[in-house]
From TrEMBL:
It comes from Qipengyuania spongiae. Residues 1-29 form the signal peptide. The chain crosses the membrane at residues 175-196, 208-234, 240-264, 276-293, 305-326, 338-360, 366-388. Residues 432-564 form the GGDEF domain. It is an enzyme of class 2 (transferase). PROSITE patterns: GGDEF, PROKAR_LIPOPROTEIN. Gene3D superfamilies: 3.30.70.270. Keywords: Membrane, Signal, Transmembrane, Transmembrane helix. This is diguanylate cyclase.
Amino acid sequence: MTSRLPHIVAIIVLHLAAVLACVSSPASANDPGEGSLTRPACFSSSAEDRTLAQMAGASTVWNCRGGGWDASARVSWIRFEISGQSGEAPPSLFFTRISRFASISLTAIDADGTRRTATFGERDGTPEAAGPIFTLPLPEITSKTRALVVRIVGPHSAPIMTEARLTGSTTRTDWSVIQLLFLAMILGMLVMPLMFDVSFYIVLREKFVLLHAFMAFSMILYVLFAGGLLPVFANVSVPAMAIGGSLSWAAGSAAAAFFLTEFVEPGRLPARMDRALRLAGWWTLLVIGFASLQLSWTQSFDNALYFYGFVPVIAIYLAAIVVALVRGSVAARYVAAAWIPLFLAASERLLRGLGVYAAPSWFDQFLYSALALEVIVVAMGVASRYAAIRHDRDTARAEARMLGNLSERDPLTGLLNRRALDDRFADLHAAGYETIALFDLDHFKTVNDTHGHEVGDHVLRVVGDVLRTDPEAVAVRMGGEEFLVMFAGGDVETRAERMRQTIAVRVAREVEALKSILTSSVGLVHVPRSAGTPVEFGRIYRRADALLYEAKAGGRNLLASATIRRPAPARTVMPIRTPSAA
């Protein structure tokens, strides 16, 4: 399986690359073109007490070259230039990437200085089923309008500034229909491994299967929230979309640490690395998860904490993978093939999230493609590890059963031994095996002394074969030439006597070295379940042994029987029955 891994990954990458080529290709005549959007001309930031008039009068505070966006500032400013060309429909909507904020003011400025302002809270924004964006209506834009200034109070991320646009329709945004279909395809690819994980966990309850299922579920939520697909299915607010996307990514990333500690084969990760991974997981869940909430009082630092917080986490994950690979982990090969592309895509998203640079919306497809690759390849690794663990477990169980059988079986005859009988006697009696017959071969010592132990062993094997012929009986070798048989069903004395006679016939026929008939004696005790007598093997065995002694004392080649009843058992001694010739 592992030898085919590079080929499988290459095929997946080629397919994803082909889809990405379609996603990132220039828009068709029916798709929104670049000219349908108005992009920001300049950016700035300030304290909350700075007014629009002050910003308009200070040309040096505006950054019109790009770069240097600061999400930690209390107020961010964006300025759009409006051309006012005749025949061109004016923009009517402001849209940008979903993020938390305190308020957004949109001010249209006409050529004569007239201003029209509309102010909105974050719950006034409308998440659109057109990508990870929300829209706000613009104040009236006329042919005289020359600029639109956006004042964002309390922004929690740089992309809310760098990806801001003006448009005339929600169908004409940075996200094309092809991109949304691609995202829906990614979502479907994430669902399949989740279903496999659930199926695997039902059969083999390993923690790493459950953790990978949680990772897949978290990534499904991330695509729904951060990819902007959730508004297709439900009405959600901008805060819910912003928090849901960040928190689901943090939760999935935290689960990845614990998954790696459980998924890698035992002994392939040093104890220190195991502890570092677990600490990284808790750091991601608690610290980065806290930053995901984007609370109002954490606005100045939560964006930096969220993205910078992943830097040591990625470093620890990479180190763990390298160590496991060096130590020969097969599971780590799957993880490396799955996570390294994801680390690269996540690092690119990290730089954009910090405002280091701006990029087209289709850059997000790299991260979603890496997610699909990760879940598929790791699911293959989970399946491989699942198969290996199940094979090892089945082998161990088979060996345990074999060892159990060996410990409960007489190696010479294959019958149960005394130990097995001690464990099962009460259950067998309760199941209807109410008659116990103790068989002992007459003058067996003479066989060993005269013909040797090899012939004696042959005799014992033949006896074992005879005793196992009754389908309603359980035979046990008690030791030496003594055997015990527990009978169920009726007419037990006749069946036991027939078995006793058959021993002599089969031994005479199959053990050619013997020149005389080998007989046996039997002590038989019937203990009805309705007798009210406590089922105690030792007491019943001693009673059968006493009856066997009576049969021996009566001249051997006899069956002595008794039924334990109240107040006293009755005894009978059956006469000698000479076995017929074979």
